[in-house]
Amino acid sequence: MLAHILVAEDQTDIRDLLVMNLRTAGYEVSAVGDGEQALARQLESAADLLILDLMMPRMDGLEVCKALRAKGSATPILMLTAKSTELDRVLGLELGADDYLTKPFSLAELLARVKALLRRADLLAAAQANAQAPGRATNIRNGELEILPAKRQVRCRGALIEFTALEFDLLLHFASHPGHVFSRAQLLNAVWGYTHDGYEHTVTTHINRLRAKLEADPMRPEIILTARGAGYKMRDLA
Amino acid sequence: MTVRFKLALTVFATGLITALLVIATVVYAFQRFEHEATYRRGTGFLGRVVANNDYLFETYEGQPEQFRSWLRNMVLFEPDTQLYLLDLDGAVLATSGSAKIAPGFKVALKPVLQAIGQPDAAYVMGDDPERMDANAVVAVQPVRRAVMSAQDPVVGYLYLVLHTGQLPEGRWAALRMAFGRPALGLILAIVAFTTLVAVLIIVSVTRPLQRLTDAVATLSQRGLDDSPTGSPPVVLPAATRDEFGQLTGAFVMLIDICRSQWNELRRLDHFRREGVSNLSHDLRSPLTATVACLETLDGRWGADPARGEDRRLVEIALRNTRNAARLVQSLGDLAKLDEPEFKLHPEVVDAGELLDDIAVRFAERAMQQGVVLQAEHDALTEPPFAALDIELFERAVANLVDNALKFCGPGASVTLAARVVDGRVQVSVADTGPGIPAADLPHLFDRFYQSRQSVAPATGEGGKGLGLAIVKRIVELHDGAVAVTSTVGEGTKVVLSVPAAAL
Questions:
Q1: CB of B502 within 8 Å of any CB in chain A?
Q2: Which of B155, B178, B201 is the last residue of a domain?
């Protein structure tokens, strides 16, 4: 089945180019020119992925994003923005967009992000399906750390710890390959689905947060270890 | 020393000196008055004695003992006074005192003649035969025989030595006597009192100056910004009509001018940032469309061997458009980082680990260039933890590494290191590249600065001298500092130092 992507972008040239290239890449694409139409179209017939421009007439990308999340929609959203760092972070962390790209971006990067977002949505759906069929998903233990992929729960030293979706995915990736060293680029590719240079700091930030939440002393980590000059790994107890 | 203190000191010193001079004058005048009074009394007395005793000299010649006792009787009233009969040479013929007169002693005749010749003189000082000095007030009357001859019939002198009380010799001793402790204490008290009054007056007169000083000090502490913390604006004291008032007025005007110019500057700077930010923002959409178009074309023609030349053209257009896009982005980012409202998102992180990751990130490019890129570790020192905005700090270091790789040829090395020195984490990027001429070093981190000697390839962040400006701004936002040392032909070392996180 072809994945269906809805593009909302007020600038015709960019919109046409996006539609053209997404279609070439094999997706079913529909496009609108403002936020109101995007919201209406999505509520009418849900697409598998939304690409929203941040700055649009009548209703901007953020408002569409918030309105959809308020209605319980879990459709992945890729935000396009012409703004610099500050707003991007707010977007990424708080307002419910799953990913963002700063203009000007490259088409290859956009296509890679789209692919990653769709794959993650599939995995999530599969995990939820697993959760409904108990006993299927295997829980992972690593010393005092216990990960329950089906419930997306983590216990450490007996306490339940809250993680964001990406933090959990990163932890799960580490835990699934204990002792295996990953560079930041590899993690970016495997967990985020990014292939381009320039976002590695995101990995550092997330590893920092994992350590802050898991480690007894985040400055002397014992669970997520550093392999000098190579990358990061989870300790291998076996 | 404050002006007030100086003025008070001046008043005190002047008061003291004036008081001492007045005392000296009074002492002198008092002594003179005493001398004069004594002299007049003595002269009058002697005049009456001579007028009432016609046979003085004859008595002396006839009955010297009787004459001596008569002399004694004459001065009974004032025991300290001595009366003498002198001959014309000044030798003592008879004395009222019992003290021995040194044989051959002669009273100096000059004061004697002066006393006789100038009856109106204020007083005359002469010899005291008993004490053999010349510091006594003397009165003199010539003695004549009862039967006068034709010539001046003076045969001797009655010579009266007047001791005025117990006045000791020497001015200072006299001063001490006349103005002993009670008077001196009183005078000092008066001087202190007047000084105090003067100080009060000085304080009240200079109060506007003090207020002005305080206001200006507050102002210079707070700067010209309109108080954002809600503290009341600095108010200069109300202008009075004197010089202080004029000074205050001048200051008020000066501050007004400064403030309006400062506000104008800030307004212009704000416009500049806004302008750059908007321009950068507005250029992004057309650049996005252009890049997307070129990429689409590139993708379509990539597989077609007949389109080889077209594809090369597209590649050139694409490369240049991407460079323009990067420059636009750097400009926009720098404008963003410049905004006063910009906030970091610091996280405590091991800077050494971050350098490792950055080295990994650039490893492939370094290998292709034949440059040895490594992150150094010093296991002995404490781990360099610091509160860093990871995205921005990595960008700063990456810009430096990118720059180093840009200028380094095959065989060179680029070394990253982080260590804790005196409570600061020092992150260094050192290369063995061509180095930077000393003349360029101070301007290296200026915006759009391009060395005349070394032309930077137009790649990387901005490519037009924005990369290092961004590094500097990011480090400043971290309360840090950038230092660069370089030797032409040997290499360059850039050190970013930021406060270390408390472990």
A1: no
A2: B178
Confidence at B76, pLDDT banded by 50, 70, 90: confident
Is the bond preceding residue B384 a cis peptide, omega within 30 degrees?
Answer: no
Does B357 lie in the same domain as B334?
no
Shortest Cα–Cα distance, A219 to chain B (Å) = 8
* Residue A108 distance to chain B (closest CA, Å): 8
Name the domain boundary from B178, B196, B218: B178
Residue A225 has pLDDT above 70, yes or no: yes
Contact: A84, B333; criterion CB under 8 Å: yes
- The answer on B370 and B309 residing in a single domain is no
Of B285, B348, B359, the CB nearest to A103: B285
| Topology, domain A4-128 | Rossmann fold (3.40.50)
Which of A193-207, B174-188, B206-220, B263-277 holds the top average pLDDT? B263-277
For the record, the structure tokens of A84 come out as 């610099």
Least Cα distance to B359 among B306, B298, B430 occurs for: B430
Take residue B210 and report the two structure tokens written for it: 């003090």
- In three-state secondary structure terms, B223 is coil
Are residues B360 and A13, on separate chains, in Cβ contact within 8 Å?
no
Q: Which of A182, A193, A161, A185 is nearest to A225 (CA)?
A: A182
CATH of domain A140-234: 1.10.10.10
Q: What is the pLDDT of residue B457?
A: 45
**Average pLDDT value for residue range B22-48:** 85
CA torsion through residues B185, B190, B193, B195, sign: negative
Instruction: Domain of residue B398: give its range.
Output: 347-499
Range from A11-25, A136-150, B323-337, B488-502 carrying the lowest mean pLDDT: A136-150
Of A82, A226, A230, the CB nearest to B281: A82
- ipTM entry: 0.78
- Quick: pLDDT tens for A200-215: 888 888 898 899 888 8
Give contacts of A205 with chain B, Cβ < 8 Å.
347, 390-391
pTM metric for this prediction: 0.64
State yes or no: pLDDT of B202 exceeds 60: yes
> Would an 8 Å CB–CB cutoff place B177 in contact with chain A?
no
Q: Give the C-alpha separation, A11 to A13, whole Å.
A: 6
Tell me, yes or no, if B298 comes closer than 8 A to chain A by beta carbon. Answer: no
Same domain, B317 and B365: no
What's the domain count of chain B?
3
Mean pLDDT calculated for residue range B485-493: 88
CATH code at B27?
3.30.450.20
Is A14 within 8 Å of B375 when comparing Cβ atoms? no
pLDDT confidence of B236, banded at 50, 70, 90?
low
CB contact under 8 A, A85 and B392: yes
Interface test with A, best of B283, B285, B377, B474 (most A CBs within 10 A): B285
- What are the residue ranges of helices labelled H in A25-157? 35-44, 61-70, 85-94, 107-132
Cα separation of B397 and B385, whole Å? Answer: 16
